[in-house]
Specification:
single chain; about 375 residues; mainly beta; six-stranded mixed β-sheet; five-stranded antiparallel β-sheet; 2 helices; about 5% helix
């Protein structure tokens, strides 16, 4: 059954924030591809477009009030019905929760035309396309190298006065961190930092493996990116006062286990005031525990702020055959089967969960 709501465009007419965009474009936005989406403040949507090697900032005007998204039992079928196709022709590339409104945004690819679309889910569980025709936006190009282009953009995130993105190019130092000043200036070029990381499970320093998912993090007057890699070290990169063109060595703080690919990462503070980093992953080796290859763990922030003597080759390892331990690393049961997850608030998250060949959207409680 088709839901009429998906045929309605999202109409949000709040004033634009002059502090977030510089020289914005008025409408006419065409997305060639989408690899990742996330939110800044005041409903600013960040879109990573690998085909155009750019990050696009969109003023959605979706600034609240905040609510919780409604559940959707078979969201791929719901989307497909509104787009005139079938569920098997729909791929949900990424999901982001707008912290200002609680509305869920979905990056969707439709086959066979490979159209890239952004859809929303509101408090009633209604799905609708984001109408970008009248929204202001600005695009920033991500530089490759002297003889290469950006080959992938893995993640993007807002950090107050800067936007960060991560990805790769075809060079020896392929792993890249991109920096974009706020306000985001249309037509500008991002700064770039080359990243090197010690892969704990591989027992060597690597320059080609990209940061798959990350968060900006501030501690002791220093600014970091905390990111996760395949196999799965969680590392931090100090990025304050780093000039474009520089190289930075990451510090691997904890190893969650070989054979896993990070999908999403966020931090939150529990009801006892303890801060955690949640790493949501997909296991690509045979599953050693739990009911699904999709799973997640929360890592105490104490590991991220840990002593420098317990890093890199001496970083703490998690036993991939165990559901608990070491202390401060815990499996999040509610993330089994989750294909995408994003934080709603310090008490809950939104998941797209795979079960019996279908994807459902729901809100889960954080431990």
């Amino acid at each position: 059954m088709k839901l009429p709501a998906i045929l309605l465009s999202l109409s949000l007419a709040l004033p634009l924030s002059a502090a977030l965009l510089d020289s914005p474009q008025a409408g006419g936005l065409q997305l060639k591809s989408i690899s990742s989406i996330s939110f800044g403040k005041d409903g600013l949507l960040l879109v990573a477009d690998p085909s155009s090697q750019s990050v696009i900032a969109i003023e959605t005007g979706d600034a609240g009030p905040k609510g919780k998204p409604g559940a959707v039992a078979d969201i791929a079928a719901t989307i497909a019905g509104g787009l005139g196709t079938t569920a098997e022709n729909i791929t949900i590339k990424d999901m982001a929760v707008n912290p200002a409104s609680g509305r869920v945004y979905l990056a969707v690819q439709r086959r066979p035309d490979n159209a890239s679309l952004i859809l929303t889910v509101d408090a009633a569980g209604k799905v609708a396309p984001l109408e970008t025709g009248k929204l202001a936006w600005a695009a920033v190009t991500l530089p490759g190298g002297t003889a290469s282009k950006v080959t992938n953009i893995t993640d993007v995130a807002f950090d107050g006065d800067r936007v960060f993105a991560t990805g790769t190019c075809n060079e020896e130092f392929a792993s890249r961190i991109f920096t974009i000043p706020v306000p985001v200036k249309h037509g500008s070029t991002a700064g770039v930092i080359s990243a090197e990381t010690y892969h704990v499970a591989h027992k060597k320093w690597e320059t080609k493996a990209p940061i798959q998912s990350f968060i900006p993090y501030h501690a002791k007057d220093a600014e970091y990116i905390v990111g996760a890699f395949a196999c799965t070290p969680v590392a931090k990169f100090r990025v304050d006062d780093i000039e474009s063109g520089a190289k930075v060595k990451g510090v691997s703080m904890v190893e969650l286990g070989s054979g896993n690919r990070p999908l999403d990462l966020f931090d939150y503070t529990d009801k006892n005031g303890k801060e955690w980093v949640v790493v949501h992953t997909q296991r690509f080796h045979p599953n050693l525990f739990g009911p699904s290859k999709f799973w997640g763990a929360r890592v105490s922030i104490d590991y991220i702020n840990g002593a420098e003597t317990k890093t890199n080759e001496k970083a703490t390892w998690r036993d991939v055959k165990a559901k608990t331990g070491p202390e401060g690393i815990e499996i999040v049961e509610a993330l089994f089967g989750a294909v995408h997850v994003d934080k709603l608030d310090n008490e809950s998250a939104v998941v797209l969960r795979e079960a019996e060949g279908k994807l459902s959207l729901a809100v889960i409680a954080l431990p």
